[in-house]
Request: fold
Amino acid sequence: MALDFLPGNRLELLENGAEFFPALLQAIDEAREEVQLETYIFECDEIGEAVLAALVRAVARGVRTRLLVDGFGSRDFVLQRMHGVAAAGVEVEVYRPLRGPWFIPRRHRLRRLHRKLVCCDGRVAFVGGINILSDFTRLPGRRTRQPRWDYAVRIEGPLVRSVQQAMRRLWRLVYWTNVKRRPPPEPRLTAAPRIDPAGPHRAALVLRDNWRHRHDIEHAYLQMLARAREEVWIACAYFFPGKRFRRALAACTARGVRVRLVLQGLSDHPILSQATRALYPWLLRHGIELWEYHATEMHAKVAVFDGRYSTVGSSNIDPFSLFMAREANVWVDDPGFSKDLRARIERHVAQGAVRLDEEGFARLPRWRKALSWVVLGWVRLIIGWAGYTRDMEG
Reply:
């Protein structure tokens, strides 16, 4: 799959909720025709309430407003706030609503809506990894109050059309699925996308779903790894790649490319983190530099290749993102944008990351190493049960 970069976009890199949420609320408040928002987590905290208030204000101005949330990630919102929001005029749909207790294991429950997309008036869009929740909600227990590390991109220009169309397609699919019948004709959303050039950036929207685009995000990564000649930076919250991805990383270092991975040191999913640590010896033996970020929870899913190409999005490099969930990443061909992202990653690494080496890993207690391998086997068992072992092995 070749990346189809569209020219003429204006991209703004937004770091953490401190930069993202003011821009999001402003875009919603400026909307005059339509607002579409979809997210994995919609938390009923101060950030969630502020976004809901903005959506209700939009409805009061006559703006058609749609909110699509995941049935698992936003289960508290669905139970506590959804009906009240719908009564206020916001159209709300739930992707794969939970049926019965959430902890009952079923394969289809692993297929989630993990995208974080917003589109207002076909004029401005947001793509990234930031959920609708406070930077300080659900953080691992720490005395410090540093925000969760994450990114999104604000977009103007021709790429907004791609975001708008992707959101409309999924809304129609979920709407039809939830009502269990073909819906009556509904008024179309009225906002036509603005496709005039808005800036200097070349960018592409890459989606992952369970039908036509099952491997698109993984293939985009593999394409960039094969193209890299100098350096690769990857900062990924949940990292558990299959053999195909690991071989691509090793091929980079074999031809002299410096590869640096920044991974979670503090995790809200410790089981997956333990499984990832079982891969550390292999990665280190192949010359890949490993950094664990301990300042706060890292939720970023970003990468920079040779200081020119970069990606920001919702997709982790693990089987749940690459083979099961609906994801969305923006890929950028622009040295200025990529230089900015690279500098931000380096700043976080300098301030809060610890570099790992083979000697340090060898000194870990045997029980820690054994635990990682036990958890690795358990995660692989879950992947096999879900039917994705072939995808993982490549």
